[in-house]
Amino acid sequence: MRQEGSSGGEPSVTRVVETRLPTRHGTFRILGYRDRDGAPGGVEHVALTMGLEDGQPHSGAPLVRVHSECLTGDVLGSRRCDCGEQLDAALARVATAREGVVIYVRGHEGRGIGLVEKLRAYRLQDEGLDTLDANLQLGHAADARNYRQSAAILRDLGLRRIRLMSSNPGKEKALAGLGIEVVERTGMFVPARPENAAYMDTKRARMGHDRPGRDAWAALLAGHVPPHPAQGAEQELVERYGDLAACGPRVTIGQLGQSLDGFIASRTGDADFVTGEIDRTHLHRLRALVDAVLVGAGTVVADDCRLTVRAVSGEHPVRVVLDPRGRVPLTSQVFVDGVAPTLWLVGAEARASGRVPAPAVLGERVDVATVPVGPDGQVDPAEVLRILRARGLGRVLVEGGGRTVSAFFEADVLDRLYLTTAPVLIGDGVPGLRFDGEDRLSDALRAPARRFLLGEDTCTELVLHR
């Protein structure tokens, strides 16, 4: 058994057991802890981790959810609260990021008052009291929880800096007071329901929890579309990305930035930059809203791109490199920076030839999978998507280059296409979107579209499938 304690009266926690837990979000490492110095009667907690092993390097500030036990919401599906849906959303976010922790804290039922007392509070709420006043009338504190055990568990896992998934600023403050640095806090917003509207209003009005409208982008990242965003930038975000955020666990979108005459780079391959900075921020928002970002080998060879989320808050997607011939250099950033997981899709011949080394040579955050290659050397985009979805990567952004986006477009597997045009004429260069056309203009594709300005550039969003 392994104990983690601290000074200042914080109880030790003892790591009792470790095993694996397959879930619908993927397989987690699950660790069982007991507090009160490991006494037999101590309260037991669990931590579900992904991408974090003892003594192994990690991103430096993984995602963390400290989830308070709620039998009625987590197990019985109660809609008086949003606990069960938040737990599910937290596990999904960790699985998407491939790195993080969900700590399930026992003894926090009803904000620390216990299950039966919580049911008594429910009865008072039925008579008209809000959740806070019901606890107070029963003689309890408004919130009797502490997070000493959670801080101790994080230290046992080797985590001192975290990105906290919580809409409760009090939780951030409590962990910071226990020596855990919260470098970022992102709200946990799930769709509101009529049954828990009063509960949610009380948390926000009387306990300081975040409102979705105060951080529209955080709500969109959680798959929630704020119904009444603030005017201005927040409303613009909701109008621009709300449909994409809410379109479910499976969507494939394409994105290209090109000149007015249809080129993504000059004849020498220089693409720095066709579109402006605002369009690049837009691209980072698209990356943050998907599980995986896919590019062809040529894009990595030409640009040595990172494919991470840097211009906005959000999780890095899994980076997918479609490279049937195995020609991407092993020194490319997507293989060596370790910032986000990378999936290298290669052909069987490239793998057998030795051009693709063993996974142990590539590093822990790089995985290799074999993709079928046709006699013409081409890959079926639908088969690529099947491989990704088998790995839980349902929301996919096909980012480049022109040939790859065009192949997915022509295979009719893109649900949406974001095509940004810059007011520049290149004349000759690397072409953008290209596909076999129609003889008659009346047969040309005319998809539902909308446009928005990105500085001097114009983005056209085509809805190809709903």
Topology overview:
Layout: E1 2-4, E2 13-23, E3 26-35, E4 44-50, E5 63-68, H1 71-75, H2 83-97, E6 100-105, H3 109-112, H4 115-126, H5 131-137, H6 148-156, E7 161-165, H7 169-177, E8 181-186, H8 197-206, H9 216-221, H10 233-245, E9 251-259, E10 263-266, H11 277-288, E11 292-296, H12 297-303, E12 318-322, H13 333-336, E13 342-346, H14 348-352, H15 359-362, E14 366-370, H16 381-390, E15 395-400, H17 402-410, E16 416-422, E17 429-431, E18 449-454, E19 457-463
Parallel strand pairs: 5-6, 5-7, 7-8, 9-15, 9-16, 11-12, 11-15, 12-13, 13-14
Antiparallel strand pairs: 1-2, 2-3, 3-4, 4-6, 10-17, 16-19, 18-19
Describe the structure in your own words.
The protein contains 17 helices and 19 strands. With 466 residues, it is of the alpha/beta class. The longest helix is centred in the first third of the chain and has 15 residues, at 83-97. α7 links the parallel β7 (161-165) and β8. A nine-stranded mixed sheet has the order 14-13-12-11-15-9-16-19-18, with helices on both faces. An eight-stranded mixed sheet has the order 1-2-3-4-6-5-7-8, with helices on both faces. A two-stranded antiparallel ribbon has the order 10-17. It has helices spanning 71-75, 83-97, 109-112, 115-126, 131-137, 148-156, 169-177, 197-206, 216-221, 233-245, 277-288, 297-303, 333-336, 348-352, 359-362, 381-390, 402-410; strands at 2-4, 13-23, 26-35, 44-50, 63-68, 100-105, 161-165, 181-186, 251-259, 263-266, 292-296, 318-322, 342-346, 366-370, 395-400, 416-422, 429-431, 449-454, 457-463.
